[in-house]
Amino acid sequence: MLSDRYKDILLPIIRNFTIFRKIFLYVYNMLTYYMKKNMKKILFVFLLFSLPSISYGNVFTQINSRDIKIEYITYTVGSEIYDLKVWLSDDVATISAISRDYWAISGINWVFFCPADYSACKWKNYTINERFEDWIDLSFYPDTGERGVFWWDQDTIPFIHQTWKINSSERNNIFEWLGNFPILYANGKNMLEYYHDVWLYDAKMSASMKRHFICSNKEKTEIFFGSTSSTSLDNLAPALYDIWCWDGLNLDAWASTYFNYNWRELEKWSRKVLDGFFIVPKTFDAIAINKKLDSAMPEITRVFKRYPKQSALAKITAVREYLKKYRWDMYETYSKDIFDSNGDLNWYSLEVTDTYILQKIYLFNILDIELKKLYNSISSSTS
Asked: What pLDDT sits at residue 85?
């Protein structure tokens, strides 16, 4: 039977929201299953939608390449399941907030910009890097100079562009792009050698720090973007080449770092950003999930705030632990080990191939963020 300590969280929500009432039986059965496995945690209600069980184009990989830890997400060009999207603005925002506005599930920050928290920027956020969205060119300069642009056409075929030098005649075919510095690879050539030759390889490039990047393979069938452990760009470039980076661009990182997968915040720093790159699902209604969650959160908040402060915090922690456990179980199910040429384990790749499960993970990760906010709010309250 469902114990009273589970009911006092579940039932008030179920009584007030039709969507929760409809799936109560499923929730009850799942909770019973986990209780039988001696999992003494509080279950939180989640939404379920029945959709086709096929997916591709949002694959997470964690790998060791030349002693550099690389985490990246691969998009399959021409995917019937996912779209690519760039977001850009003159107003800063977090990648998480942008993701919810764009209904995206995975994303990363992009261009270098002058942040308002730098006095040299005169308390204004702006960038001179190239930006192009839905055929509209919003670039600061007509010439890229030594900067590079990672772009794709209307069919999402990716290219590197640099005025007068690399695919320079293709500018009119650009559907969306974002520019940055430096280019890592162009048509399979390591471009850092050039930057060394013209004295543009500076101390920040040679320093060991976390890096963000975007690449495409030689066949132009995959675009992948991600984050690395601390390294210099000279060390990073060959490590990316080993994982099939044929065209590649360095992205902004450090205090502007954001990196999401399935709406889980893998990396998050304090500074808001001007633009980002996203994977957006076509096969489920992320808008509906977000709206239902937004409508449910006020009641969920009231339920937890009925309890004394420490009890409420303990219950929220238990719910978040359950969400983490569920996500871990699903990722274990859908992950595959990666082995190097010597047959040694070299970490793993992950693709949730069941859209039904993907939606639950998507919702759970959003819930986890909202519950973290609620936890912090209650924790900082005086009562």
From this structure: 85
pTM of structure: 0.78
Per-residue CA distances from 142 to 129, 132, 163, 191, 370 (Å): 10, 12, 8, 22, 42
- Indicate the DSSP class of residue 172: G
Q: 222 pairs with which residues across the strands?
A: 76
Distance CA 317, CA 319 (A): 5
**Residue 45 confidence class, pLDDT cut points 50, 70, 90:** very low
Q: What's the distance, CA 174 to chain centroid?
A: 24
Cα Rg of the chain, angstroms: 23
62 close to 71: Cβ distance less than 8 angstroms: yes
Residue 136, helix vs strand vs coil: strand
Whole-angstrom distance, CA of residue 247 vs CA of residue 215? 5
Task: Measure the CA–CA gap between 66 and 238, rounded to whole angstroms.
Answer: 8
Alpha-helix runs per DSSP H in 192-285 = 192-197, 203-206, 233-241
374 Cβ contact partners less than 8 Å away, ≥ 6 residues apart: 300, 301, 304, 316
Q: Which two tokens stand for residue 234?
A: 């000279």
Kindly state the tokens that stand for 251: 């992205």
Q: How far apart are CA 204 and CA 236, in angstroms?
A: 13
Q: What is the mean pLDDT of residues 129-153?
A: 76
| Helical packing angle, 286-305 and 4-16, nearest 10° | 130
Q: What sign does the dihedral 22-26-29-34 (CA atoms) show? A: negative
Please give the sequence-ordered ranges of beta strands (E in DSSP) within the chain, or none if there are none: 59-65, 68-76, 82-93, 106-109, 131-133, 136-137, 148-152, 158-161, 176-180, 183-186, 189-190, 212-216, 222-228, 247-251, 258-261, 264-268, 273-281, 335-339, 345-350
DSSP 142-165: SS-TT-EEEEE-TT--EEEEBTTT
> How many residues in the chain?
383
Tell me how far the alpha carbon of residue 328 is from its chain's centroid: 17
Q: Tell me the per-residue pLDDT of 325-340, one tens digit each, with 9 for 90 and over.
A: 888 898 889 898 888 7
Highest mean pLDDT among 73-77, 143-147, 290-294, 363-367: 73-77
Retrieve residue 130's tokens. 């190239």
